[in-house]
Write a structure and sequence with these properties.
Blueprint lengths: L1 H13 L7 H16 L5 H22 L5 H16 L5 H21 L2 H21 L6 H21 L7 H7 L9 H5 L6 E3 L2 H6 L5 E10 L14 E7 L1 E3 L2 E3 L7 H6 L1 E2 L1 H7 E4 L2 E8 L9 E2 L9 E4 L4 E3 L7 E8 L2 E3 L5 H7 L8 H13 L3 H10 L6 E2 L11 H9 L1 E2 L1 H14 L4 E8 L2 E2 L5 E5 L3 E9 L3 E5 L26 H6 L10 H5 L2 H13 L3 H7 L3 H10 L6 H33 L3 H10 L12 H8 L7 H19 L8 H16 L5
Parallel strand pairs: 14-15
Antiparallel strand pairs: 1-5, 2-8, 2-18, 3-9, 3-16, 4-5, 6-10, 7-13, 8-12, 10-11, 16-19, 17-18, 19-20
């Protein structure tokens, strides 16, 4: 029984060796060696050895890994399968090993690339079927192939309609409405986001790919977004606002770290509404914020509401009364496009134009050249963004730059960096050109859990951008990172993400009184429908196999639902898949019933055929409580038949018993074979050779 299970479990375990750390590989190899050695030990020693190793292995793994990690779960299941293989005595034990091996194989396939996963799954499926057949000695190839053929349409439906929700078990549970949000040890030990910023700090924070910042649950708004969530590129999570740049570091307003200063700088909700010059699309959502030990809260730019027990500052930054030291939940509402800001007073204007004395002279000269070349502030702002087109490179692997002239070295020498580098260079460039500018630290984008209205914001979404002051529009977000395409090369102009700078400079000069388009007009064309259309057109170029098998994702599942005029939620997907499963199961059941009815009409009734067969034997009639096989063997016990006749007799009796008591079908030639057997029995009784 162990022989077919061994290669299946070994194959499934080998697929994990490419991504498991050495500690987990050592635990798994120890289980393999112990499983192969224990059959030679006494039973009580074997049981004790396997139990002690299982407890020790789990304990050692828990010391270095989180229990919900996929690698941890795969190692534990594979180890349990090997340990159970060491004490397989019954088919039930073998079935447990088979389930562990199948689970291990499935997890390995999920971690492989699509093409490699397909190549690995085919031999794995063959080994699984062979191992399963070995658990039942009566298994035959034809019934197994029939069962596989019946299972294929059901498996296809489960494959297509199982929600594709990315992430770990905690993410999956939260997406399905199970509150599994807990703070990991790594998240508890992370460095908090400071109320300051160095040029390379964003790249350092973005390297922490597994740390969560917040989870947003969207409920819709005025835009037609995919499951209520705006496009990820439009999600700017506003954090601390920074004004002063000195010695290569940004900081906030003087003294704002104290609670008194923060409370003195707050504004009322009425003031906030009054400073909003124009608004566009609005989004309503809830935020689950992980502890960062700071006073600020994150909200999408621009916050349109103030949660309970919080306040908003004149820099439009949400603040909590106490540091965030535990998971915090609060409702929010934000304008995705806006024009906001009161007229600048002299103190704020001077603060937003501060330039470090004697530092970065090349950047200062560049800003002054932009001022001399262009007449309008909006032209200067666009020219500053266009400066990054060319041979600049963008990526998180570029570290910080030290020194008083770090911005000059970035702009004119290294020409490569991350969000903090570009936002700092742009801010100083604009200040040198006479445009008030400030820095905003936060996050951009996130991970959208497919088929849900939830977005995870991770530490690797750390971002920084600049805000410039234009007298007509107020504070306007300018993000130099939008200039870069996905490969980190400057290819676009960065003006397509809803910054909404209004009419062209010529119209601005010619017609001062004329109202421009809404600040976020570009957002209206980047809604979910156009986003899905562009994604669908891209998929049409791919092969059918790639679209519906190797690269099947939540977006394709949403297309299925939208084609049926259903909302793209996992509940609708499961309901549709369940309905199809029920329909196919019903068709299979009806076909099975019709087949049995037809077979019964084609053959004589089984009980009548059994009565005829027993009537052909000598002896008393069969009692109602006596089985067919028992009766036949009792009537022929006095006959000394050859071994071949005995085997034929036993086989025919088993076929009839299965038809009588297990509702199995009976071969059409059974009566003819029974007559042939009676002739052999008669010959045996007369002493002749059959």
């Amino acid at each position: 029984m162990k022989a077919p299970l061994l290669p299946f479990l070994a194959y499934a375990s080998l697929l994990h060796l490419v991504h498991l750390p050495w500690a987990m590989i050592a635990v798994l190899l120890g289980a393999v060696l112990l499983s192969l050695a224990t059959p030679r030990l006494p039973e009580h020693v074997r049981t004790l050895s396997l139990s002690v190793y299982a407890v020790a292995a789990v304990g050692l793994l828990l010391l270095g890994y989180e229990w919900w990690e996929g690698r941890f779960i795969a190692t534990v299941i594979a180890t349990a399968g090997w340990l159970k293989l060491g004490e397989v005595n019954r088919p039930r034990d073998g079935l447990l090993v088979w389930i562990a091996a199948l689970w291990t194989l499935c997890m390995a396939v999920l971690w492989l690339s699509p093409g490699t996963a397909l190549l690995a799954a085919v031999p794995g499926l063959g080994l699984a079927l062979c191992a399963l057949a070995s658990l039942d000695g009566r298994a035959r190839p034809r019934p197994m192939l029939t069962q596989i053929a019946l299972a294929l349409p059901l498996a296809a439906i489960l494959f297509v309609f199982t929600p594709r929700i990315t992430g770990n078990l905690g993410v999956l549970g939260f997406a399905l409405g199970i509150p599994l949000i807990i703070e990991t040890e790594a998240e508890k030990k992370r460095d908090p986001m400071r109320d300051g910023l160095t040029m390379g700090e964003m790249a350092d924070r973005a390297a922490d790919t597994d740390l969560r910042v917040l989870v947003a649950t969207f409920f819709g708004g005025s835009g037609k977004f995919y499951n209520g969530a705006p496009p990820l590129g439009d999600l700017y999570w506003r954090g601390p606002v920074l004004w002063t740049f000195a010695d290569g570091q940004w900081s906030g307003r003087e003294g704002w770290q104290t609670r008194t200063a923060r409370m003195r700088g707050k504004i009322t909700h009425q003031t906030l509404d009054a400073e909003l010059r124009e608004t566009g699309l609005i989004s309503v959502y809830d935020v689950k914020l992980f502890p960062h030990r700071g006073h600020w809260l994150y909200a999408m730019d621009f916050p349109a509401a103030v949660p309970p027990s919080t306040f908003i500052t004149r820099d439009y930054q949400l603040q909590n009364l106490n540091p965030v030291r535990e998971i915090l939940n609060y409702p929010m509402m934000s304008y995705l496009d806006y024009r906001a800001g009161p007229d600048l007073d002299e103190e704020t204007r001077a603060l937003a134009l501060q330039y470090p004395d004697g530092a970065n002279p090349k950047t200062l000269a560049l800003g002054q050249a932009l001022l001399a070349e262009h007449q309008q502030p909006i032209e200067i702002a666009k020219a500053g963004m266009a400066h990054f087109k060319g041979d600049f490179a963008y990526g998180m692997h570029f570290g910080g730059i030290d020194g008083a002239n770090a911005v000059d070295r970035f702009l004119f020498d290294r020409r490569s960096g991350y969000a903090g580098h570009y936002a700092t260079a742009y801010a100083l460039m604009m200040r040198a050109a006479g445009i008030p500018t400030r820095m905003v630290v936060g996050y951009r984008g996130g991970v959208h859990l497919g088929l849900t209205n939830k977005v995870y914001v991770m530490e690797n979404n750390a971002h920084a951008w600049a805000e410039i002051w234009l007298d007509r529009y107020g504070w306007v977000r300018m993000d130099p990172a939008t200039v870069f395409a996905g490969d980190g090369k400057a290819e676009t102009d960065g003006w397509g993400l809803g910054e909404g700078l209004g009419p062209s400079p010529e119209e601005d000069v010619r017609e001062e009184e004329e109202e421009g388009p809404a600040a976020g007009q570009a957002f209206e064309t980047a809604d979910a429908d156009s986003f899905r259309t562009s994604a669908a057109s891209g998929r049409e170029e791919a092969s059918w196999w790639s679209r519906w098998v190797t690269d099947l994702d939540a977006r394709a599942q949403v297309e299925i639902l939208k084609g049926l005029s259903l909302d793209g939620s996992w509940r609708n997907l499961l309901a549709l898949g369940g309905a199809l499963l029920a329909a196919i199961a019903g068709v299979m059941l009806a076909a099975s019933v019709l087949w049995r009815v037809w077979r019964r009409r084609q053959l004589p009734r089984i009980d009548q055929l059994a009565a005829w067969a027993t009537g052909t034997l000598r002896g008393p009639a069969r009692r109602p409580c006596e089985g067919f096989r028992s009766y036949v063997l009792a009537r022929t016990a006095d006959v000394s038949e050859p071994a071949t006749v005995k085997r034929r007799l036993d086989g025919l009796c088993r076929e009839m018993s299965a038809a009588l008591y297990a509702d199995a079908s009976l071969a059409r030639d059974w009566p003819d074979r029974w007559r042939g057997l009676l002739k052999d029995l008669k010959a045996a009784r007369s002493g002749a050779s059959p």
